[in-house]
Amino acid sequence: MSVARTHPLRVTAVAMALGALGLAGCEAAGATGDAEDAADRAATAAAEGDIPVLDADATRELLEAQPDAVVIDVRTPEEVAAGALDGALAIDVQRDDFEDRIDELDRDATYVLYCRTGNRSAQAAQRMAERGFTDLHDAGAYEDLAAVGLPTTP
User: Fold this and answer.
1) Which residues pair with 72 in a beta bridge?
2) pLDDT by residue (tens digit) across 81-114?
């Protein structure tokens, strides 16, 4: 019985050629493929828990470095009325219209989310990532953010 053997270099060359063809096909997908890739990466990040969780000092530094970042308070209207970060958008993650509200936002902007303890901001960030938002930061608890001197409204 004869066993056919393939030379290792020949296998490597074939694999490289097939890989190059695969990459060429990906590049031909164009902008639509790029948008789909970004959405896939965001969904994967959300599923794997890769959304950065910042402490209050890191949040302050991020907001100083990126003044165009959009801050979202995901608490209830009653909680927001008791105090919020200046300029924060109030989008209650527990309301039925949460997805409708975030769908109005630019998916490519930088977002910093916070709530009372960090649980709802993590949930909101995950839901946003699943909808294609790619630059998300979970800032955790409002009181911690206020304690490091971020401007608030009473």
Assistant:
1) 89, 113
2) 999 999 999 999 999 999 999 999 999 999 999 9
Residue 141's domain comprises: 41-153
Say if 36 falls within a structural domain: no
Q: What region, left, alpha or beta, does residue 72 occupy, with left being phi > 0 and alpha being psi -120 to 50 degrees?
A: beta
Give this prediction's pTM: 0.70
| Inside any domain, residue 7 | no
Q: Is residue 21 part of a domain?
A: no
Q: Does residue 54 form part of some domain?
A: yes
CA torsion sign for 115, 80, 152, 62 is positive
CA-CA distance, 73 to 93, in Å (whole number)? Answer: 9
SS3 115: strand
d(CA 59, CA 67): 12
Kindly report, residue by residue over 33-54, the tens digit of the pLDDT.
Answer: 444 544 444 444 445 568 999 9
Half-sphere exposure of 145 (CA within 13 A, CB side): 31
Q: Distance (Å, rounded) from C-alpha 12 to C-alpha 88?
A: 55
Judged by DSSP in three states, 110 sits in: strand
Q: For the chain, how many structural domains are there in total?
A: 1
